[in-house]
Every structure is written in structure tokens, then in C-alpha cells.
## 1
Amino acid sequence: MGPLQLRNRFVAAPMERNYCAEDGSVTERYIAHLGARAAGGAALVHTEAGYIRADGRGRRRQLALDDDRHVPGLRALADAVHRHGALIGMELNHGGRTTHPTVSGHQPVAPSPVPCRVTDGGLPRQLDAADIRRLVRAYGDAARRCRQAGVDVLTIHGGHGYLIHQFLSPMTNHRDDEFGDPTLFLRLVLEAVLKQAGPEQAVGLRISAHEGHPAGLSADATFALMEEVPLGRLDFLDISAGSYEAGEWIVQPGEWEPGLLAPYARRYRRHFGLPVGVAGRINSARAAARIVASGQADFVSLARTLHADPAFPRRVLSGEAYRPCIACNQCIDELHNDQPIGCSVNARAGRETVTSAPHRAAPAQILVVGGGPAGMETARLLAEDGHTVELLEAGSRLGGAFRLAAGLRQHPDYHLILDWLEDGLGRLGVAVHTEQSVDEEVLAGRNADAIVVATGAAGRGAAGLLPAGAGLREMFNIRTWLASGRRADQCLIWGADRDGVAVADHLAATGTTVVLVGAQSALAPEVGRRAKILTVPRLEHHRGVRIVLGAEVTALEEQRVRVRTAGGEEWIDAPGPLLMSQGVVPDTRLLDACLRRRPRLGVYPVGAADEAGNSLRQCFASAEQAVRALRSRL
């Protein structure tokens, strides 16, 4: 890569995390987080996209590159990465029209006054030529600061709908002056950054191969523009896709094929002769190897994959099992909360400053009751600590209710984390017994030093919810229906929460005609936009799906349902079984029995049984908390 050599072909891609302070300065959390990625074997570790001027700031806790006072913090980041033998890269960016005044403190600026409705930042101010040239200098100044901080790689962000991309796109550049030339701004920025870069630094460009929506740049149009840019002066290209109007192309949904952007990278690699990297849901060793071996790219850019397991590169290269990213996209949705983001499958993401080494103490006998994700992860961690662990699961397979979710259309990778957990249990010698109901007699037969209660949650029952006429219908809790494996040509789903929406989408895809009725004002309101970016529009436009929101069910008959909305009451044809999705309640029936056993090291409810919540992230977090609590007793 220019004057540099990478130790392997794994690159930690820029990924926003909300780990900086609110003034954009580096924190100990950020230093530890990037250090972990370097220790995990990545050859090049990027920070997130740093803003080069204050009016280009897109997040309250985004990394700042706009002032010399940030150089010492950037130097600390570089030192942490270098200590583990990796190179560090920084991505230079300005948000343009995607910024919001409440975050940046400035009116958004852009090539033309085209608002970004996704961020709702208002009408941007059109940049005049003098300010454009000041922005060019700001890119150069940011590059200088990175050089002074010891940064190895400078990446110019030219994609994802940010400022440079806004100049390139006909959707956002309507100018009739010299900057109506879509590539001029990029060419000037490239010149300014190269002028400030040292001879020991590599300089590259990240682009969106296409914008992902009809009004934006197509793949051919983008490629034609890049032919007008002196890319031969760069050391590498990094290929991504999408813009804010097509966010699914920036952070791809789990339904999409891993490595789906690699064919675009191949085109650039063959034509321009530069080292080329590619991003896009590369979450397995197989996908990464296929991309490189086929000549589509020289390196793979990994973001969510390393968030799930920072040691992914080291594990892949040594043939070890790695914790998989399941593309749930909760991390990207959490960015909007302005708080440090976590990971559904890795409770340690963003918490690298907390000691995580296994705790070696006198081995104890541990009984885990329940084999969902919380129980499996707790058992795995305890076995890593050297304890003798037995896990009892009432069902025929491990995985609990999450196993049901893993069978749905929108979650094709959910099974990966269950496979990883199950493999870990076997590797660590955990005694697993399925189809094992647990009662006080079973508990009395185990001489456990500690008991972990991981019995999960059950779908809320019908008591107190059902209106007149309910007895005329065949009714199921939605989880019970999924577990049964039954099919229906038509059905009524009552509840537009996460579970109801996911099942409606799945059933509609298999040919079931669905009526979805919910008190919610929107589909799956508890789920972030990116996590449902395909599901919601798909349901809304499906001919076999009728959606009624803000609705109270007032009566039921065998073939229809009466609902009350703000517009009044009406009967709706809705034949077939009634599937209820009205939330869940923790299953704590065994908790008292376990407490009565009074094991010497205590009883530890985890996951939904601990009322910690029903999400996968809460399951993993509560498992770690329980293990830390037990360690304190040893």
C-alpha cells in the first residue's frame, strides 16, 4: 500500500462508535477499543470518520480533526495501535447536508440547498466558491494533524452521501459555476491532502460504488466520474456503497449476501491498477478468502465483524473459532442515542478497559437451567474459568426463543451465534442435557455450588386481553405458533411489535395472507430504523398484507375482527388463526425453587429470567454480569 506493507489483508474499517468526548477528543475508552482491534490481528486499524471542520460534525461524540489541540489525543490512539504491530488510519470527512444544527451548532452547508430528510437538518446553506476553497484547506490541515500524530494512512471519505459525494452526485449538486464540475472539489481535496502527507504515509480514497437510489449516481456513472480523477496519485481505493437516502447500502442488512460489493471492487482493481479494498457484510473467513482469492480485492474492510470479535483476523489466520457478527444492525441504530454503542453478541464491545481475562479459582460445580443464549453464554464463560458446568434444557435443541427468530426470513445469520455458542460448550466440556425438564426433585439430585437460572420469557397470555367473541377463533401465542411449525393460508396477527412484524414478514414471504393489527403507531417501534430498513417497506407494499395501526381490537369473530381507530370502528375480514404478539413475561417459576436450595455460591438469574430484558444484547450482558458476580464470591 504505497510506502507501507500490511501484515495481512484484514483492515478495520472506519466505524462510528460514540466513544469520543462531546468535544470530539479522544478518550481512554476509544484508545482501548482501537488497541484491542490491533491486538486482534488487523493489519490496519482505522478510526471512525473524523470531521475536518466544525460544521461538518455529524455526531455529538464524533472524532474531531479540526483543531491542533486534538493532536495529542490522536497521537495516543496511534501509539496504542502501533504497540500491537498494526498500522493506524484516519478517515477525513465533512458531513455537508447530512449534519444537524443541534449537533454541529451550525447550519448545514452543501454544494446546493438540497435538504437531507433522513437527518431532518433543515435547508443547507449553499457554499460559495471562497468557502469551498477554505474547506479544501481544512482537509489539508486535518491531514497535517494526522501526520503530526503519527498516523500511517489517510483515507479521504468520498462516499456515503457526505460532502465530497454531494459534489459528485447530480441529486445534490445543481451548481452552474466551476464547482458544477462534479469532480473538481474531490480533485482539490486530493491535492491538498497529498501536499500535507508525509513520504511515509499512504493516501487513499473511499467511495460509494453507487448511491443505491434512482435519483443518485449509478455504478456506471460513478465509475465514469472516477476516470476523471487522478487516482493514479493515490496508494489505494476502498469500495463501499450507498448514501443517506439508501442507508441499507452503507450498512447492509443481514438478508443480503456477504461480500456483495466485491464485484464492484474488481472493476476498479482491474482498471486503475491500485490496491483495492472492499467493505460490505464480510462476516466470515470464507467470504473474505473468496474475495481475495478471486482477485476482486486486495484487502477486506471489516467493521461490524470486528465489533463482534476484535480478534477475528488472528483467529481466522490461526484456524480458531471466532464470535460471528449476525448483522442485526443494533449497533448502527444505537448511534442515534449519543451514547457509546455496544454489540448484541459481544458484551465487551466498548468496555475494553474492564478486565476480561478468565478468573482462575478453585473449580466449582455449576448448574445452568435453560439453554437459550443467556444460559449458553453464562455456561461458556464459567467453563472458561475452569468450573465444571452442567446445562439442562427442556427443549429438544439449545437456543430457546432465539432459535425461533433464527428461522425467520430477515434473520438468516442469527443461527451463527447459536452455532458458535454450542461449539464452545462442546469444546469446553460443558455437560449439556436437552429434553430435560427441571423441578425441585431434579434440583435436589444435583450437588451444585451455584445455580444459574436462564429460563427466558414466555409470550404474554390472553387473560384480560381478549374481547367479545374470542372463543370463536383458533388462537395461539405467536411463539407457540412458530415452534409448532404449522402453516396457514391466512392469519390474523394481533400486535405490531418486533415479533409480530418479523413473523408477518416471514409468513407473507411464504404465501400467507396476513392481517396485522396493532395498538402501535408504527411498525415495530422498539426496533431501530436500520434493523428494519427492508422489512417495513416490504410489508407496507405487500399485496397480501393489510396493516391497521393505532387500533384497539374490540370484537372477534371466526372470519373477521372489529377494530377501533382514530377514524372510528370497523369490521375487517381476517380469516385464519389468531396469532397474538402482546409482549412477553419472564419465566421465573423455578427461581424460588433454586433459591430454596441455597447453594454456597448463590443463585444467578440471567437474561429475561432476571428481567434484564428480552433482547440478545441484554442476554449476553447479563451473562457477563452474573459471571463477574460469581467470581466475587470465590
## 2
Amino acid sequence: MRRNWFHRLLLSYVPVLILIVCLFVFIGVVQLNDLSRKEALKSSGVYVQNIQNSIDMSLNSIELMMLETITRNINITTFAGMQSDTNFFIELSRLLQSLTSTNPWIDSAYLYRVGDGTVISDKTKLNVEQFGDKTFIESHINNPELDSWSLPRPYRTVKDGNLEGTVISLSRSVPLQSKGIAMLVINVKISGIQEFLSKYGISEVNQIALKDSQGQMIFEQNGKNPKDDDITIISNYTGWTYTSSLKKEELGNIFNYMKSGWFIVGFLGLLLAIGWIVYITRKNYKPIETIMSRIEKYNQVHKEHPIQGPTVDELSYIDYTLSSIIEVSQEYQNQSLVNQKYRRIQLFHEIIDGSRPLEQADWNNEIMDFGMKQLGNAAVSIVEIDKYTEFISGHSREDQGLFKYILKKVVEESAEACGLRIWQEWVTNHRLCIIFLEEQQETSLESTMVTLTDQVRQWMQNNLKLTVTFGLGCTVHEVQSIHQSYESSARALDYKSALGSNRVIGHWEIELLSHDDLYVYLQYVRTIAQAFRVGNDGWQEQLKLLFEGLRRLLLPKEEISGILSYMNYYFYREMMELPPEYQELWNREFRTPWDENMETLETLDELESFYLVTITSCAQQMEEIRVSKGNHGVVQKVRDYIEANFSDPDLSLSSLSEQFNMNSSSLSTIFKEDFGEKFVVYLCQIRMEHAKELLRTTPLPIQEISERVGYLHQMSFIRAFKKMIGTTPGDYRKVHQ
């Protein structure tokens, strides 16, 4: 062994312990640094707030002084009243000088009068045209609402004079609340505010920056860079933005931290933890040593077939040994279960198929599993999931398996509640076969089966919205006869198409059925197809009569499918007589939907509904095609005339041409395009349909019937009838009357 498990445990625990301790130390240092940073940011916020309050208070005091001067000094108001005495102007200039001397931030002040454009400043008297601040006066004289401090701007006294500096200005109307009479303006030096910030806004910890309401920089300390955690305050008075940030970030003095007493205590605790890990690892290693010694002893005894595993470490060796033992045991157990399940399913199929004689020993074992000593009665029921194609397309594989499991479980619990013993297996993907077993022969097994299966059917429908159909077989008394019950159950289930789905069908329901002559209803097929092709409305009623007859016959699914295939063939043959556009329509509206849905149509009701909907749609679209053609009106009149005069023996294409003033060749072509057949064939079909009606509903002799449908000679009528219908009029009457 290159490394034993003791060293692996030791090397696994110690790095984790050291990592955790280092992590806690690092977290402590970071937390201390973060705490100090938060406190520094908090003090920085208080500091910049004080700076902002100081500047706002200074500017606000200038505004109050300005308002007090306008309100209390009569000379200001007198100036607005057009006083123009020279001494008066000198006194006003001195007044303005006193205003500028009261606050070191005030750079200059002046009065402007609208009446004569006079400007009196703290330095001189000028006309507004000579005054360097004319633009500011014009923008504020008629806008008293601009009562806040202006943005920083250059200022000069004389229009063409030198720039005196950058100022912010505050203007007020004279008298107050007036408009366009006079105005007092006080200018504050930006340099004064910058000197204030340089003196009080710069420290070793904080950096201050100031921007006006338009974002232009007023003051910024050298080297300041924007940061995410900067403290930003916007003044409600001036709209200026004050920004403060810390100059530098430090994690603290790590060496001082390591010299502290707490670090020494933590280091001693780490050494103690390492010692404890060594001790407990040694103690926990004892079971590994014991297991390894037992494996070594086994290898010494079984030298021919020792356990050869990986030699990386002891635990891998033990894991390999246990895995080998478990794998062999599990493989043996799984194989045994698979074989047992396979034998059980095979026995089940042998019983229901009757394919070979059943071994009595096998059956006796199954009887014991069911808790029975002997077989009294047995009967088979097959349950089929309705609309299985929709079932598999509408649910995932997992959901399908879940539904099937629930079905078996419901059958099992229902049988247990009725005191029946059952054996059930899936014989196909959608059919579950159930064998009901009883020890006594005196009990009525079939009545109990009917009750149980109907309960299961209702439960599946109400709780899972899934419908199933049960077929019940006959009761037998020997295990060798169970296949007979299975066959009768399957035969009963074959009649689901005729009797309907979502129900219980007993074998007794079909054993006494007396089928009428199927030939009677097959005669409707040709009539329906021909009437549909020529556009007669009678095909719908005849189609309904056909399905009513199929319901009365109670045919199994295979025979119903054969009849419908026969009818589809006749429809196809009739449509092939029509132009290509009609054939395209038939393939699109009927044949394609039939190929897609034939597997999901299980009952006669569903089949009848499908035929009526699809063929009615085809008939409507065919009629639209006929109407779109210019000759449809003429053809309709010709058809109505034939219906009214079919009994006329002289009715011919020539007589029709004379009747409607048309060329016989043109009329024949139009007739062929609309109905897909010649006039003679169409006339014969009309006469034969009326003849069949008379044969079915009247006792008239055949000679008279032939005359009524347009035949002067009886033999001509009989030959035409047999050629068209396939039988003589007399035989047809025997079958249908």
C-alpha cells in the first residue's frame, strides 16, 4: 500500500482546518476594514453636509440682506420713481458700497431703472447701453420668476472694459413684486466660494467637488476621481451638487494585528485542533485496520482465487471488495427475478392461448401464490383502452405507463373488494387480460365480473377521463379450458365498433345474434356513390340508412372495415369519371383525412359522423365548382327535365337538344364535364333508382314497372336492370320486400 487510510484522513482534515482558520482571520480583517470604511464614509457625509449648509446659509444671508435693503431703504424705492438728482445718485452708490462691504463674498451690486435706462453701481453711474451687464438685465427685468442664483458667468462693469471675474448673481424687482420698473442685482464672487472650499473643504481624508445645477464644475480638489460609493448631496436652495469621497483605502496594519493577543490565542487554538485531529483520526482508523486484516486472512486461505483489487489505498481496496460481493449477489438476485417474471408471463400466455399442454406443477405453484387449493371457476375479461392512438399522442411515455399502472391497480383493488382472485397481464399495448379465479363452482362468477368491470370502467372515466371497454368471456371449470374463455372475450370485444365503446360487452350478447342479409345494405353503396357524383341530395339519406343497417347487423370490426373499404372504392371509382379538379378536391377533403383518422374512429357513430361531415363538405365545394362554370344553369335545367320526364320512352339526347335549342354534341360535352358520365348512362341510373323504389314498395308487375320507368319492352328493362344493379328485378324484389 502506498498510502494507508490514516495518513489520508490526516491529510484531508488538517488543510481544511487551516483553511477555515485563515478564512476566519481574513474575514475578521475585512470586516474591521469595512467597518472603518463605513464610519469614514458616514463622517464624510456629515462633513460635506456641513459644507453645503455653510454655503447655503451664506448665500441665503446675502439674499435676506438684499430683501431687507429693498424693503426698508426709501432711497431704493425713490430711485424706481425716476429721481435723478446727482447727490441722490452719489448716496445710492454709497449705499451699494456698504452692501458689498458687509460680506466678503459680494463682488459688486448695481441698480437699474427701466424708465431712462440708468444703471447705478457701487463704483459708477452708466447708461444701460454702456453697461457691461446689459444682457443679464434684459433677461431678468421682465422675468421676476427667475429669483434664484444664476449660473456662474463672466462680469464686467463697462461694456468694452476688462473682465472683472466670474460671479453668480441674484436679482430682485424694485419695489418687490413689481415687474419692469427697476431691479437690484448683487454679484457674488466664485473665487470667494472657491477660497472657502479650499480652506474648509480639503482634509487628509476627504475630497470635495462642487458642480452647479447644469453640471459645470465650480470646485474640485486635485487628483479626485469619481467612485461608486461617493457621497453626493444636492442643495435644495441653489441646486448645486456636492460630492465627497475618501482619498485612500487601507486594510489596516496586518503586522500589528498579528502581534495582538487575540492572534496568539487563535494560533494556540489551531495547534490544539491539529493535535485533536491526529488523535481522533488514529482512533477512527482502527475499524479500517480490522477489515484489512480480515481480507488479508481470506487471501491467505484462498490463494488460488484471491481478491485482487486496486493498491492505491486501503479504502479503495475495501470498496472494490464490497462492490465485487454486492455485484455478484445483485446480479444473481436480478437474474432470478427476471427469470421468475418471464416464466410467469410465459405461463400466462400458454394458459390463454392453449398453445401447449400446461404442466400441472407450474399451475399448482400459481394456485398456491393465489392462496387457493383447487380451481372451481375461471373466466377471462379483456379490457381495451379506447381511442388508443389519441391516448399515445396526447400523453408522454411516462404518463402512459402511469395510466396503465393505475388501471391494473384499480382492477386489483376492485377484485379484492369483491373477494375475487385475479391474474392480469398486458397482452398488447392497449389490451389488458384478466383471469378471474374461484375455488367454488356454485358461485355466479359472470354476474360478479359484470359488476366489477363496470365499476372499474366508471372509475376510470370519472377520475382519469379515460374510457375503456371490457369484453367478458364464458365461465370454464378447468385450467385447460381458459383459452376458450379468452377467445369468447376477444370475440365480444371485436363488436365494440357496432355496440359502442366505454361499456362492458358480455359473450352472451353476441352468441344469439341473428344477422340479416348483408347484401341488402351493400346495394346502398353504389347508389350513394353515384348520387353523390351527380349532385343528387338523396345520398345523405341513403348513407344514414346504410349505417342504421350496419348497427342492426351488429357486425365485428373486421367486417365493418371491409364494407367501408368497399364503399370508399366505389366513391373513388365514381370520382375518377369527373375532371381532375374534382378528383383533387376528393383526395384533399376525404382521402387524406380518412388516412389520418381511420385508426381513431372506433364506433359506428364516429364513422357515420366522419363520413357525413367530410362528404358533405366535398359536395358543397363540388357544387361551388359547378356554379362557377358558365353552363351550370343549363345543366341544372336539363337534369330537372330528365327527373320529370324519365318515363318517356322517346327521351334522348336529340330530344333534349331540341327542347333546349342546343347542339347535341355540345350538350353531351357539358353533361360529361359536370356529371362525369354520358347522358345515356345518367338516364339509365335515374330509371333504375325509380325502378328499385317501385320494386321495394309496390306489388306492381315487372312489365308495368318497366313501362313506368321508360322501357316499352320488359326484356330490355330486365337486361338494363341486371347490368346496372347486378341482379334481376325479381331477385331484387325478393331480397328487399
## 3
Amino acid sequence: MIYSTPDLITCDQEPIHILGHIQSHGYLVAIRPDDYRIVHVSANIAALFSQSAEELLGKPVTQLFSQIGESPETLTSLLDGGKTKQSWDTLSPYRMSLHEQVWNLIMHEYDGMIVLEWEPVGDASMLPYNQQLVSHALNEVQASQTLSALLENTARRIKEIIGFDRVMVYQFGSDWHGIVVAEVKEPHLEPFLGLHYPASDIPRQARELYKKNLVRLIADVNSESSPILTIADWPADKPLDMTHAGLRAVSPVHIEYLKNMGVSASMSLSLIYRGELWGLISCHHYTPRFVDYTVRQTAQFVSQLLSSALEFRRGEENHLQRDRSREVSRVLHDQLVLESDVVKALTTQSTTVLDLVEAGGVVLRFNGQFYQSGKTPNEQEVVALTDWLKTVDSDPVWHTNKLVDHYPPALEFANVASGLLAVTLSHELDEYMLWFRPEQVQQVTWAGNPEKPVSVDAGGQRRISPRESFAAWVEIVRAMADEWSETDVTSALKLREDVLQVVNKQANEVRLLNNLLKEAYDELDAFSYTVSHDLRTPLSSIRCYSEILIEEYGKEFDDDARGLLQKIIDSSDRMRSLIRHILYYSRMGRLELKRQSVDMNGLLKQVREDVLLDERGRTLTITLGDMPPIQGDPTMVQQVFQNLLTNAAKYTRPADDAQIQISGEVTDDSVVYHVSDNGIGFDMKQADRMFDLFKRLENARSFEGTGVGLAVVKRIIDRHEGKIWFNSKPGVDTTFWVSFPNTVAVAND
């Protein structure tokens, strides 16, 4: 059903990180790092210190300590230490006594402000008990045989640590709706286990905050929050960003939501998997309840144990899946090499293309024919589907677990093809490999109707309100299949490379793509070789004469003239570098291949030294793993890894802790190396441009480069009858794999 919702004030537009209030159980002061003067202060500060918020604004923060009898130098020393270390974790909490009560001072620095928060200290006698619970939690993480047991045990430990009435483990789906997958509660409470909650219950900006601030406490939903006051001359568009503040007040929409549930206090702990939000440990209490900072830290440690366990268990599962897919991929590759007919190699042997991933059926559309295995849509439906794919996306691989959302006609064959993994062999020739997954009908029990009601406020403006009813609401979900894994996608891309390599090796002149590529390469070779030679001599002259002008007549020129001459020299150097790359690229097709055993240990260590020398002055770690030898041309092999490592180093420059890993392994018929980095990554939607000459991806345009390096790498790999493929996630990581034929193993066979 489609709803018309113009001019709605939606939850995901609410600026919850700058609400301008704090919760009432604590006090906040924000100061400038340069002079420690107070810029922001909570209005309730007078209850803790002897001066009002208005009196404190603009004053040195040390004035607070002088009011309570402590040495101002103590606070100055703390602040200086945090700034020097650029870390405040070891300094927080700092304990102090005020009005015969002990308080925790918690400090952090963010967005140009040092934020100081005071919270009451809880029962210190519980600390040894909490430490014992952490020890038990660690043992349970190691001993839990199943994921469900691990989740329930963790929820139980969190409940013991913080004393809340209900603790749930809440897992996000791919569409960000959530399901309660584990629960520990007081006996009189109704169970929430198994209930689903719509994505709108935890909007986008809240999920982003959960990734940054891993613990969130709401001590009393009925308490009056305290506003934050700011010095008079502070810019109105620069409010205090409380992303990392534990006292940050709560969105009125969320307060209304909790009240509708009958919850008086809540606490949440983030569960992170591979840098993304996997889920939450969500805790509810039905009377107000404050949780001490150190207790929250203990609970956070337990949640991080669970996050680590999720990483480990998912890694084990992925490893088993990768091993299985790798074996099937190897067999399919052997069949493609031995069988001259691509279709027979993929569809008529004991291992077929259907075995590569878990799917109900597969269609190979190749050379104008259809080859089907398992349960699939009919030929007419597949033709319409591939025609639509051509208009929608030019990616080499495209996948979804709910095809009907993208292609409504898929509803007609949802029983066999609700999920699609599509690999494009050639758009021009309408050649595809299509894997289908059948519909998995699910009965989903929601905690109330997932559609948020629309209300009208006093001003007549429509807004989305929190749900008021949480009674179980059952929905039958159709036209949805199991999700495709990262291993599924990578295996499909690898098979695409294998198929295209075999097709290119057969040199089928009737194939439009090969004809176009051959003509383009021939023309590029001739053009680049001629232009490179014709340009180098005059370019050298331009540079030489510019240097003479600076040396002989530089004193007679003003600064602008000398600057222009230097720009001429720099531009000449850049053009010479580009010409050198073009010339190397054009020669690559004609150079004789001198194949021999290449000592990769010595080669990669030398390349690493060269790259680290070029990148000196920054934090960069290049780790070398197994380095089996390669059969190839030593000069060309060095060029491959020089380009790959240089690129990895360049695109990790924004990372605080740049990491590059290189390792190789020997398979039955090849030697495969991978180069991984934690740099800027790229969108796989642009992957088909990766090896195009002079083409650079959108997010790489701010980095220097010629757009030739990877084209050279691709050409060298092709000359060696090898393969290159890759996978990446923007802002997370990039991995390139290069394989060289293991000619020694083949000869021994």
C-alpha cells in the first residue's frame, strides 16, 4: 500500500545530537580547548556549584574547583593530560566530593569542545561482584555452543550487572527493521522474544549515533531535562554537539514512544559487526533507574565481548562457505579450460554453475540461447528480465533478495525467483548468468502495526507519531528470498572472470565485444606510441628552457613570474610521467615475455621499502604474509605489485591507522595473491570502469594519478594468462586478487 505523506515531520529528520538539553541527573560544562573558558553550561549547574550558569559563562573552568575547595591546578592538570594524550578514557571518571556526595567527572573532546559531565557515583561495593560477572561472561562466550545460547547468556549477565527488569538482544535486518532474538526478564512481564519492530522505531540518525556512542542511558523518562546555555557571542548555527555525551537529553518522540510502552528507564548497548551496527542490547526498567558510569562501562565490556564473538562465529561460517565455493570455483575453472564449449563446461558436467551458490535454479543466456537448470522463470520472462537489467544497471554483478521491489513483474514468478543474483557477461550480446532463489513465505509478528500513524498538531502540521499500541500484529511476508552473501557475490564475479578469459582466449571473431576491444587497443597502441615519442623532445626543451630562465634571470623576475615558470616545470614533469606510463602501456602488447621463477619474498620486500619511502611521515603498516614464487616476467610482475601497493598506500592516506596486507597461496593450477587495504574503498557499481584507460572512480578524483596504472596491471595479467578480480566497500576496505598460472604444477602433472 502506498501512502501520500506530504510535509510530514519524520523521526529521521530530528537532530538528536544537538537537542540542546541534558538529562536531569547530571550536570554539563563545555569549554574551549585553547583557554579553558566556559562556552556552554547546563542551566541546573547552580545545584552543584555555588554560581549560576549565567555567572559561569565565559569564565575559566578552574573557577568551578575554587568554589568547592579543590585546587584549580588539579583540573588544569587533568585537561592538559587529556589534550597531550589526545585520549580521555584513562582520565575518566575522576571522582570528587560535592555536598557530601561523591561524583564522577567524565571528560571527552569532540567538535572543537572539551565536554565535562558530572554524574553521581553508585554503590562501590558492587564493583567486585560486577568484575566477577564479567569473568563469567567471558567464560560463557567461549563455552556457548550455539548463537542463541550465547545471546541469552549475555543478556542474563547484562541484567545482573545493571539490575533492569528486561534485557533484550535486538538484531537488525537488511532493511533495518529489528527482531528480538534473545530476552531475559522478570517473571511477571509479558515476553517480547520473537517480536519484530519496524525500522522507523530506530531511525537512521539514531543508528548512526549508536555506532559512535556505544552506551546510552535514559534514567527517567518523566524527569524534566535541563537546557544548555551558551555565551552571548557564540554563533547560532554552532550548537553544542553531544554525540558522545552520556547526559545527552532524549528526543521527545522517543520519550513518547517509551511512555507508550510503559517504560520509565532504558539503556542500550551497541553490537558492532565489521564496523556496522549488527544490533542492540536493549534494556527496559519500569521505574526510574540510574546506572553508575563504571557499571555502564562494565556492561559495555560484556557487550563488546559479544560483538567479538559475533565476528568470530560469522568468520567461521564465512570460512566454511568460502572453502566450499572455492572448491566448486576451481572445478568449474578446470572444466572451462578443458572444454572448448563454455555452455557444456558449465551445465553438463558433474559440477555445474548451479553448484556455485545456494540457489533454486540458474539460467545461462549465451550466444543467443537459453540454458536452464533447476526451477526458474520461463524463457519469455527471463528475456523481459534481462532487458530490464540492461536499463537499470551496468554493473557486472547485481543482486537482491526481493526482486519484486525493483521489478514488479517478478510477482508472477515469485515462487521460484524472489531472489536474483545476476552476472553480466556482455550487455551488447545479451549474455548473462542468472541465479534464482525461491520465495520464503514468513509469518512475521510485529510489536503493533508497523505503520506509524499520522497526527496533526495544534498548528495544523502533520507529523509521524510514535505507535501507541504494541499488541502483537501478524503479517504474512511474501516474495522475499534468503539474502545473498558476500561469498556468493565474490564467487559469481570470479566465475565471470573465468568465463570471459576462456572466451577471449578462443579469439571468437564474431563476438562484438572482442572486435571492439581489439580495434580500440590497436588504435591506442599506434597512437600512444607515436605521440609519446613526438612529445618527449619538445617537452624536455620546455622544461630545460624554463630552468635556464630561473637560474640565469631569476633575480630580475618578480615572485609571480618565478611562480609561473615553476608551474611550467611542474606541469612538464607531470606530462612526462603521463607519457612514460602511456608508452609503457603501448609497449606492453609487444614486449617479449621472459617467463621464469620470480622470488616474491625479495621482490615484495623491495616494493614495500619503495612505497614506505614515498609515504614517509605518515602511519602506514604493510604486512607481508606467505610469499610463494610466481612463474612470470620479473619486470612485469614487479610492475603489477608496485602499482597495486602504490594505489593501496595512496588511498589509505585518510585513515588514522593505515593497514595493507599482502599474501599469496598456491592452488592446484595457479598462484593467487591478494592485496588488501582499509582505505577509501569504492562503490562496486563503478567496478566495470576499474581497468579502463584514463578512467578514474568518482571518490578517487581528489588523489593524484594518471588513470593508467590499473590498465597496465590488467594488460600484464592478461599477457601472463592470469586473472585479476576485486571487492570493495566504500569507506571500509578494498581487496584485489591476482592469479598467475602455476606452470610448474601443470608440468609435473
